Amino acid sequence: MTTPFGGPARTAPGLPNLPTPPTGWPVGSYATYEEAQRAVDHLADSDFPVRDVTIVGVDLMLVERVIGRLTWGRVLISGAASGAWFGLFVGLLLSLFSTSANPLGPILVGLASGLLFGLVFAAVGYGASRGRRDFTSASQMVAGRYDVLCQPRNAEKARELLAKLAMGPNPSGQNG
């Protein structure tokens, strides 16, 4: 198997190389990933062989949270700033190989041209959208619930440990 860039793929030992559905028996179901992670952490703290455990997100959803309104001013400032950073980087590289006595010249040229190109490309991109997407957002994949699966050889032990976790802290005050 190779990666999209042509090199050999590296997977964790024992994991399949191709996408495969998870296997195992359900030992717990949780509303949030944090709860499922806490359950697996409890198993690990109890010296359980967690290599047999898998957390599976069920009922996946793509959630796009709107961050703010997109305006010409924000687009141009953002484009200019990202262009300036790239131009500064190129200018610094050019100054390393410059035979000029003043290394500041290539840096300023790189900075100015990066700023200009960033500004122009941002304006062209935003103008081409014609107002169809005048907001910024962040996307995240979330699940409706998170199931914890365990290989059959240890599933009963996992259920017992997770039942103890669900009952709350030990009366003696000790964890796991």
Automatic annotation (TrEMBL):
The keyword Protein biosynthesis does not apply. InterPro entries: GSP17M-like_dom (IPR025889). The chain crosses the membrane at residues 75-98, 104-126. Pfam families: YflT. Residues 1-22 are annotated as: Disordered. Residues 27-111 form the General stress protein 17M-like domain. Keywords: Membrane, Transmembrane, Transmembrane helix. This is Magnesium transporter. It comes from Pseudonocardia bannensis.
